[in-house]
Amino acid sequence: MTLPSNISNRLRLPVIGAPLFIVSNPDLVIAQCTAGIVGSFPALNARPAPVLEEWLIRITETLAAYDAAHPDLPSAPFAVNQIVHRTNDRLQHDLEMCVKYRVPIVITSLGARQDVNDAVHSYGGIVLHDIINIPFARKALEKGADGLIAVAAGAGGHAGTLSPFALIAEIRAFFDGPLALSGAIATGGGILAAQAAGADVAYIGSAFIATTEANAADAYKQSIASSTASDIVYTNLFTGVHGNYLRSSIVAAGMDPEALPQSDPTHMNFGSATSKAWRDIWGAGQGVGSVGDVVPAASRIAQWRDEYEAARKRVLG
Ligand SMILES: Cc1cc2nc3c(=O)[nH]c(=O)nc-3n(C[C@H](O)[C@H](O)[C@H](O)COP(=O)(O)O)c2cc1C
Questions:
Q1: 157 lines ligand 1 (CB under 6 A)
Q2: For residue range 57-69, what is the model confidence (pLDDT) as tens digits?
Q3: Which tens digits make up the pLDDT trace of 262-314?
Q4: From 3.40.50.150, 3.40.640.10, 3.20.20.70, 2.130.10.10, which CATH number describes the 5-212+295-316 domain?
Q5: Could you give the CA distance from residue 74 to residue 125 in angstroms, rounded to a whole number?
Q6: pTM of this prediction?
Q7: Site to substitute for ligand 1 among 23, 129, 158, 185, most atoms within 8 A of C-beta
Q8: Which residue has the least CA distance to atom 1 on ligand 1?
Q9: Domain spans of the chain?
Q10: How many Cβ atoms from other residues are within 10 Å of residue 5's Cβ?
């Protein structure tokens, strides 16, 4: 494990609960962290901007109280996701909040910036940057990210097209620091496979949409629970960047998933207009076939822990 020991020592399963636009909230983050995995949320989910400080106070105080009551089994650290894109006009404010509350892990997406990394390093935090290919990985490290999140084919939301095996092997050829792998991981065996392939931790998003804590409509949660990989559509129409979405939500919005027009990155916008697209068009990765029900996050994580141990026994004998 190449994650810093103050983080890896607190993980009871090598997993980061990935940030989910609109869906991640303090309840989900607290449930993830107290179940022994890193919980995270996009800073932009706390709206309007002053709500971010309320969320950070709630999360840090609740986890501190949990740790005081469970000194032998403390919570895992949490992470905040920052969209580093010129259309995110909250970045400076949200970063200042992360510094003020000494957020242990900052996950940066869509832009690598030295000043953002320096701000997180100023209080001892670490930055993980998500990438879909090798040029982006190299650039993130050049700008001072501490670790990478490899977003492979099949991931929910914005996703790449590379096989996880190809991506991880190429990254490990030049980088031996903290590395997370995402893309359709939704079982304990998948978590072990991510480690076997060379990652330190699995990075899992879609499976947490079908939890009781998630901020998602019931129909969205049920759709995750009843869909399979063939129900996932890869398109750049909704945000200008390619991502994976549930076919049923595209049909419900009156569009033909087989004949979607093309878009391009000039249409990316992380101001207030984005939320409508994500509320109506439901992001999800190809791992949904392994998610069969809507349960509390802690139950999902406990099931993965059992599966992970069974997979280890199966593989190692
Ligand atoms: C509904 C949804 C919203 C997402 N929102 C964000 C986001 O705001 N920021 C981000 O960095 N990644 C976002 N992602 C990507 C996830 O953080 C993660 O990379 C992905 O879910 C991992 O693949 P999986 O869903 O197959 O587990 C989102 C994914 C989904 C499904």
A1: yes
A2: 999 999 999 999 9
A3: 887 776 666 555 556 678 899 999 999 999 999 999 999 999 999 999 999 99
A4: 3.20.20.70
A5: 19
A6: 0.96
A7: 158
A8: 283
A9: 5-212+295-316, 218-276
A10: 8
